[in-house]
Design brief:
Layout (H helix, E strand, L loop, with lengths): L18 E3 L6 E3 H6 L15 H8 L6 E3 L17 H12 L5 E8 L2 E8 L10 H17 L3 E7 L7 H20 L4 E10 H4 L8 E4 L5 E2 L3 H8 L9 H6 L5 E2 L2 H15 L17 H13 L4 H13 L1
Parallel strand pairs: 5-6, 6-7, 7-8, 7-9, 8-10
Antiparallel strand pairs: 1-2, 3-4, 4-5
Helix pairs in contact: 4-5, 10-11
Bound molecules: zinc ion.
Length: about 325
């Protein structure tokens, strides 16, 4: 007969609401301190995944984000059941995250400049892109076009949502169409890839920004190891991380999370005219502000070459 002790067994696990184990260095991190450090391990620099709302809060000017279409809700058009019914998966994800689907979009300011922003949430069914995510990315792009403000999309996704079948795949075309229209209009599009950016999101809008940013060590790829090695008939080396993609030209800059906001603000400064009265003036005509300064200097040195400088300015916007 087992002996019953008068006290409860010692808990050998840390309570998960207080502590998080770092997968990088196995250190136990106090959650409050981790939140203060933007959920980056102070020991090894591991970037933890964060929710769409936390991401937006970290990036935009405080209190400036105005969410749009928060009530856009997915439907189970195919009556899809895998291990669980899709409707059950949706409901538990909605309860766990407080979101209707895996993306949040709206207008906000960064460094006083108005932007259109869409952020994905990996905690909602792996940040997978179904009809609602595709629609939100598209509406963010349409708002960027209508308001003539830059577009920022933060990806954090396992790819297309298989429970929505073909409807998910259609989002690749749809999101690429709006990104192309934004490009044609000369409006800057900054893509930020976070861990992970894979599958249909990688294969559509995530890697076609005017500037493609990534967080350190973020997993960025199209297919998983099994599919990729099955296709090329070879075992793959390490899973491709942001640093690998940067060395192969897919990623322009790898930026640690604590510097990300400043980095994007300075990029917007290169791509956009300065905001006036802190109100974030809409983009009247797309010009590089740095080029304007150079044009002003060269114009002052050679007053009769103004026309030529103007042409150079135009050329720069198309580059
Ligand atoms: Zn660590």
């Amino acid at each position: 007969m087992p002996v019953r002790l008068p006290f409860r067994p010692r808990r050998d696990a840390y309570p998960p609401d207080l502590w998080t184990k770092c997968p990088g260095c196995s250190e136990m991190l106090f959650n409050k301190q981790l939140d203060k450090a933007l959920r980056v391990c102070p020991g090894c620099g591991h970037h933890f995944r964060i929710s769409a709302r936390a991401r937006i809060e970290q990036l935009v000017d405080p209190g400036s984000f105005v969410e749009r279409d928060s009530d856009l809700t997915p439907v189970d058009a195919l009556g899809f059941v895998d291990l669980k019914a899709y409707t059950d998966r949706l409901l538990s994800a909605q309860l766990a995250t407080g979101l209707r689907d895996a993306a949040v979009w709206g207008l906000a300011r960064m460094g006083g400049r108005q932007i259109s922003l869409c952020a994905m949430d990996f905690f909602f069914i792996g940040g997978s892109m179904g009809s609602v995510v595709g629609e939100k990315v598209t509406r963010a792009g349409e708002a960027a076009l209508a308001e003539r403000v830059p577009l920022l999309i933060v990806s954090s996704s396992g790819g297309a949502r298989m429970q929505e079948g073909t409807f998910s795949l259609m989002q690749l075309v749809k999101t690429m169409s709006i990104v192309e229209r934004v490009r044609e209009a000369g409006i800057p599009y900054i893509s930020l890839m976070t861990d992970p950016t894979t599958g249909g999101v990688f294969a559509s809008f995530a890697v076609v920004g005017d500037v493609n940013l990534a967080e350190p060590n973020a997993l960025i790829r199209f297919a998983g190891d099994r599919v990729a090695s099955g296709t090329i008939g070879e075992e793959l080396p390490e899973p491709p991380r942001a640093e690998f993609l940067m060395s192969h030209g897919f990623v322009d800059r790898i930026v640690p999370r604590e510097q990300m906001r400043d980095e994007i603000i300075s990029l917007l400064g290169f791509l956009m005219p300065a905001p006036q009265n802190g109100q974030g003036e809409p983009l009247a005509s797309p010009t590089f502000s740095r080029r304007s300064i150079i044009s002003a200097i060269t114009g002052a040195l050679a007053p009769d070459s103004n026309g030529e400088n103007a042409t150079q300015g135009e050329g720069a916007t198309n580059g």
